[in-house]
Automatic annotation (TrEMBL), chain A:
Isomerase listed as a keyword: no
Organism, scientific name: Metallococcus carri
E.C. number: 1.14.13.149
Protein name: 1,2-phenylacetyl-CoA epoxidase subunit B
InterPro entries recorded: PaaB, PaaB_sf
Top enzyme category: oxidoreductase
A GO term for molecular function: phenylacetyl-CoA 1,2-epoxidase activity
Transmembrane regions: none
Keyword Nucleotide-binding recorded: no
Pfam families reported in the protein's UniProt record: PaaB
Alphabetically ordered keywords of this record: Oxidoreductase
TrEMBL record, chain B:
GO biological process: phenylacetate catabolic process
Name of the protein described by the UniProt record: Phenylacetate-CoA oxygenase subunit PaaC
InterPro entries: Aromatic_CoA_ox/epox, Ferritin-like, Ferritin-like_SF, PaaA_PaaC, PaaC
GO CC terms: cytosol
């Protein structure tokens, strides 16, 4: 945080998550610069909900996100590829169950 | 001021003052595009300007219906001359530094917040509707100014000194917001408007609470005060502002596509 307190330092980067309506999850919308969480939230409102996109906004310091690395993609994700039994594809879905 | 004005004219003149405040401040805020400290702040000030433009358009359209001239919003915005504009001096004041803008926005949004809170019960249905919509917008404008005045006032020694200087520079333009004109009195009597003087204590109390929390000081009573905007008497800055705002429309008066 020491860099954020230096007056001329660049503002830190924040990732923005917007929920479009009740019942849906927050979805990553983009990123922005802001000096602190409250202004990040307000900037997010101005940048990412201008056209009625959201009912809720989260902001997270980009530095605080731990992300998987593209280099690890094979070991992270490929092992799940051939395990078809993890997918619920062996059931007959009754006609009147619309949203299963 | 003509004391025999008919009620429709009172309403039109009253609304024109509110509309011109919003329109002229839109123009000043628009100047921040590409000049704010960060692109995020460009967007924030642009959003505020667009809110104000929406208020101005609705009010100008209503003025055109009421004043009997049949002018539309464009005619009122682009084809009036300086003496016909009824905005206060605060909003035409040239853009200063970012602290100046936050000081102006804090005062103007605090004034508009109290104004529109009262005007939701105006007897003019269009004005009451505009007020009901605008109150949400203005709440956000006031919060935006508050956030920045707090951070700049309670920030570094330089930001504190510059925010204080900005508040001091804006102080001479505050009184005019809360000064009653004959039109205000007539419009209040008819139930359309509200007396600006009745908004003063609540708006000032809000600004004072922000200034105190920001470790700043309310400016001393200014020795000179801007006045006359509501009677069409403006500063030197107004002509330049109108030239920039109006010249495209006046160069191409009937243009509908570009």
């Amino acid at each position: 945080m020491s860099e954020a307190q230096t007056p001329r330092a660049e503002w830190p980067l924040w990732e923005v998550f917007v929920r479009a309506k009740r019942g849906l999850s927050h979805v990553h919308a983009g990123s922005l610069h802001a000096p602190d969480p409250q202004l990040a939230l307000r900037n997010a409102r101005d940048l990412y909900t201008r056209r009625g996109e959201g009912v809720s906004v989260w902001v997270v310091r980009a530095d605080d996100i731990t992300a998987s690395s593209p280099d690890e993609r094979d070991s992270f994700f490929d092992p799940a590829g051939d395990k078809v039994y993890r997918h619920p594809t062996f059931y007959e879905v009754p006609d009147d169950v619309e949203y299963l | 001021m003509d004391k025999t004005i008919a009620p429709a004219d009172v309403t039109a003149t009253y609304l024109l003052g509110l509309a011109d405040d919003a329109l002229i401040y839109t123009q000043r805020l628009g100047e921040w595009m590409s000049r704010a400290p960060q692109i995020e702040e460009d967007m924030a000030l642009g959003n505020i300007a667009l809110d104000l433009l929406g208020q101005a358009r609705a009010l100008l359209t209503r003025v055109g219906e009421l004043d009997g001239t049949g002018r539309d919003e464009d005619a009122l915005a682009y084809l009036r001359d300086e003496r016909e504009f009824r905005n206060v001096h605060l909003v035409e004041r040239p853009r200063g530094d970012f602290g100046d803008e936050m000081a102006r926005l804090l005062w103007f949004s605090s004034y508009q917040f109290e104004l529109y809170s009262q005007l939701t019960s105006s007897t003019d249905e269009v004005l009451a509707g505009v007020a009901a919509k605008a109150i949400k917008e203005v709440t956000y404008h006031r919060d935006h100014a508050t956030q920045w005045v707090l951070r700049l006032g309670d920030g570094t020694p330089e930001s504190h000194a510059r925010m204080q200087a900005a508040l001091d520079r804006v102080a001479p333009y505050v009184d005019e917001l809360f000064t009653d004109t004959a039109t205000d009195e007539a419009a209040t009597t008819s139930g359309v408007g509200v007396l600006p003087s009745q908004l003063r204590s609540a708006a000032t109390a809000y600004v004072r609470s922000v200034v105190d929390e920001a470790t700043l000081a309310m400016p001393a009573e200014p020795r000179r005060r801007a006045r006359g905007g509501r009677d069409g008497i403006h500063s030197q800055a107004m002509g330049y502002l109108l030239a920039e705002m109006q010249h495209i429309h006046r160069s191409h008066p009937d243009a509908t596509t570009w």
